[in-house]
Amino acid sequence: MSFNQKVNLPKVTLPNSNEIFCLQKNEEIFLMYEQVQEYFRHEVELNEGDTVFDIGANIGMFSLWVYKLCNKNVNIYAFEPVPQIFQVLEQNLKSLDPEKIKAVPCGILQKSKVEAFAYYPNTASISTAYPDGSKKERDKFKKAAFQKIDAIRDSKDLTSPLYWYAKIPRLLLSFVLDYKLNQAFIVEQVTCQLRTLSEVIQEYNVQQIDLLKIDVEKSELDVLLGIEEQDWLKIKQIVLEVHDLENRVEKISVLLRDQGFKKVIVEQEQYLKGTDICNMYAFR
Predict the structure, then answer these.
(1) How far apart are CA 216 and CA 130, in angstroms?
(2) Which of 48, 122, 202, 247 falls between 20 and 30 A from 158, CA-CA?
(3) Which of 58, 8, 70 is nearest to 33 (CA)?
(4) pTM higher than 0.85, yes or no?
(5) What is the DSSP secondary structure assignment for residue 256, as one 8-state letter?
């Protein structure tokens, strides 16, 4: 699929009543919506006129949230390498100020190159340069799903789009989740353009990044290693999702502190306990 190929995209209404184009009308959209809010914890702060880099923008949920948060006065660079997903991102951002909001059809990694990505059409948010369809990986997602559903059941949150799962008997729910995971892990290989963060900073003559958000499905350390020394001081705040593989949380924490970030916070959502996924927040 080329970036210029046009298709009819479905729309979904979010809990804040906003409509957004998507690839699939499924639970993933609402989980992404919740995740966006998790990024604004602790001391993360944005003001009108700030500059935000949204790396791993997917369909643009985070960028749209930031645009509204800053009263439509914010500079956003939204990066998405997978062509099918970028098309939706572009559609969601096209009505915003093109001078301030840029959808960029590339991924950000340690080196510039063209590389094969695993694209999951039924669960686009887990598309990655590091595919893993193993039973261990699927069990990780299944455990997180069970814990999320248990939390909804315990809280009796009738407003949650996932509430109907909480009404399914646990044994039957296991079969339902297995089916969902089989669908989620259907994979296609696509070719993606990758660049380094410093190359993009230079191309667009960016003098300051007030918030660097990274959600790149196991490539987060690669993104940070592609930042040249002279560009680190331009970055004021970082929030990123980390997959703690090969002691990655510790490696990233050391790197951020070495680059002058005085406060680094690691936090894991309750429903992700027992998995390798957590969020990190870094402040100068």
Answers:
(1) 10
(2) 122
(3) 58
(4) yes
(5) H
| pLDDT value, residue 271 | 87
Tokens read off for 216:
């790149």
Give 201: exposed, middle or buried? Use CB within 10 Å, 0-12, 13-18, 19+. buried
175: Cα separation from own chain's centroid: 28
- Cα–Cα distance between 44 and 223 in angstroms, integer? 20
At 104, the pLDDT band (50, 70, 90 cuts) reads: very high
Q: What is the mean pLDDT of the chain?
A: 93
CB 218 within 8 A of CB 129: yes
Q: What pLDDT digit, counting tens, does each position of 13-63 carry?
A: 988 888 999 998 888 888 888 889 999 999 899 999 999 999 999 999 999
Q: Confidence band (pLDDT; 50, 70, 90) for 7? A: low
Structure tokens that stand for 2 in this block: 């080329």
**Which of 278, 249, 116 is closest to 191 using CA atoms?**
116
CA 173 vs CA 16, 146, 169, 177: distances in Å: 29, 9, 6, 6
Structure token pair of residue 228: 């040249």
The residues with which 114 forms a beta bridge, in sequence order, are 193
Q: Are 21 and 10 in contact (CB under 8 A)?
A: yes
Residues 144, 227: Cα–Cα separation, whole Å? 32
Residues 276, 282, 284: CA angle, nearest 5 degrees: 165
Give the whole-angstrom CA distance, residue 84 versus residue 23: 8
Task: Return the exposure string of 12-39: e unless at least 16 CB atoms fall within 10 Å of the residue's CB, then b.
Answer: bebeeeeebbbbeebbbbebbbebbeeb
Contact 23, 124 (CB under 8 A): yes
